[in-house]
Amino acid sequence: MNLHDPHRPSKGKILIVLHQEMSSPGRVGQLLSAAGFQLDIRRPPLGDPLPDTLDGHRGAVVFGGPMSANDPDDFIKRETDWLAVPLKEDKPFLGICLGAQMLVNHLGGRVGPREDGAVEIGWYPIAPTKHGREMVEWPEMVYQFHREGFSLPSGSTLLAGGDVYPNQAFRYGRKAFGIQFHAELTRAMMHSWVVRGASRFDLPGAQPGREHLAGRLLWDIKLRSWLEGFLHHIFEEGADARVIAPAKPDAISYARRDDVLS
């Protein structure tokens, strides 16, 4: 993406789906806007409707939130069912954390915590697969903030994996992508998450807040670079991308948990 041409014509609208009143699309929004896209921001938990079609949009991004993809709230079901729209219309789609987990549920996969209760909250290593490396150069470390993971839906392709939660990024068809981690956080957003989420740092496997901020100094430059390339691939190159061979679903076992964080 060329991020230095404010006078370029609009490339169309991207639907941005957020889940809290004060949530922001962060760097995803910044990069898409700088690349020439307009942002159409909707918040389904606050009553915003989702469009019946994406004919007027270039694609969609569904972000994370403190709720679970398995929660019984009406908006969770409506939003999960709505994912049929970008899939049927073959429009570029990116699900981030909760958004990825909704996509997994929509595709018949499973979402849930590990049986041992281990979480990923902080910076953790990631390893791209062969298919992932063919798309873009990946960072060695990514920022996480979740207590649930997901199985690899049937017919999808794993793009990157991790040690604690093995499925970190996947592709379904030509244009639908899901990622478990957070590359969208600005510095201000990370400081806010560290303050508001401090109670979760005592969970098994979580890192203390000081490591979140220290890790940003070490690894965020590569994470931001990856995000720029990944968004470019999805929203500007994805229409010409070939379908890559799907991997077999994994056999991860998840325990039931009522209190989860996506």
Distance between the termini: 29 Å
How many DSSP H or I helices?
Answer: 7
Largest sheet: 8 strands, mixed
Please name the CATH topology: Rossmann fold
Order of helices and strands: EHEEHHEHEEEHEEEEEHH
User: How many structurally independent domains?
Assistant: 1
Structural class assignment: alpha/beta
- With strands numbered from the N-terminus, the spatial order across the biggest sheet is 2-1-3-4-12-11-10-7
CATH homologous superfamily descriptor = Class I glutamine amidotransferase (GATase) domain
Cα shape: globular
Instruction: Give the name of the CATH architecture.
Output: 3-Layer(aba) Sandwich
Mean pLDDT rating = 90
CATH class equals Alpha Beta
Rg (CA only): 17 Å
Let me know the number of strands: 12
Q: Unreliable runs, pLDDT <50, ≥5 residues?
A: 239-262
**Fraction of residues in H or I helices:** 25-40%
Instruction: Kindly estimate the percentage of residues that lie in beta strands according to DSSP.
Output: 15-25%
